[in-house]
């Protein structure tokens, strides 16, 4: 990444800060202190702006290197709650049966339309051999509606099976928990836009930790 024109700090310092914040689940003020201990004087509000600017860019560039679970696998789809300005929003996520991240999508609503948007986004990001044979969800009717509509529109093969076995989603629920550990220090997001930008950074670091993008260089 080289897009640091107009910044008062060196690019490597900015990337350190963004990576540490998104990787370790710390507050902006704690990160300000950590950087000060290393001789870098920067205000926590500046670090926040760095995360908003560069976390989405990291996620965008990561997608060139992002390895998803291979064909003939099944994926687990579920949503978790994120509080934004005192109200709940919904983070849709999909992982492979081994826990590898497939995709994610933040929505203000939790309905069939949102589920369809997420599944469309996830499928568009997959190569043909990466698309699963089975999609496992909980008992929510919204997923069945979304999957049926995608199959009718030809965006999802008719051969893809929709399975509703809650216990098989334990792997994604556990992954939600690890992501929530990173989100917890935020203490509430101010808008959907800023929440999504920050979560993109968290998801990038989770993908890297899982070894899904070994060739990716920040």
From TrEMBL:
Pfam families associated with the record: DDE_Tnp_IS240
Organism: Neokomagataea tanensis
Gene Ontology molecular function, alphabetical: DNA binding
InterPro entries documented for this protein: DDE_dom (IPR032874), IS_Transposase (IPR052183), Transpos_IS6 (IPR047930)
Entry keywords, A to Z: DNA recombination, DNA-binding, Plasmid, Transposition
Protein origin, superkingdom: Bacteria
Protein name: IS6 family transposase
Gene Ontology BP term (one): transposition
Domain DDE: 73-212
């Amino acid at each position: 990444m080289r897009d640091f024109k107009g910044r008062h700090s060196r690019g490597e310092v900015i990337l350190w800060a963004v990576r540490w914040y998104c990787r370790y689940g710390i507050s902006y003020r704690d990160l300000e202190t950590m950087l000060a201990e290393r001789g870098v004087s920067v205000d926590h509000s500046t670090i926040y702006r760095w995360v908003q600017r560069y976390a989405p860019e990291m996620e965008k560039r990561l997608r060139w290197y992002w390895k998803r679970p291979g064909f003939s696998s099944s994926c687990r789809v579920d949503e978790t709650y994120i509080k934004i300005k005192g109200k709940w929003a919904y983070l849709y996520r999909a992982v492979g049966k081994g826990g590898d991240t497939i995709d994610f999508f933040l929505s203000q609503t939790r309905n069939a339309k949102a589920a369809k948007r997420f599944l469309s986004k996830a499928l568009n990001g997959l190569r043909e051999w990466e698309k699963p044979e089975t999609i496992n969800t909980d008992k929510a009717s919204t997923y069945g509606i979304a999957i049926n509509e995608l199959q009718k529109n030809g965006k999802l093969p008719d051969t893809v099976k929709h399975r509703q076995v809650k216990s098989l989603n334990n792997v994604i629920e556990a992954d939600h928990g690890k992501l929530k550990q990173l989100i917890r220090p935020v203490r509430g997001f101010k808008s959907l836009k800023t929440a999504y930008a920050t979560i993109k950074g968290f998801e990038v670091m989770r993908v890297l930790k899982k070894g899904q993008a070994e060739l990716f260089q920040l």
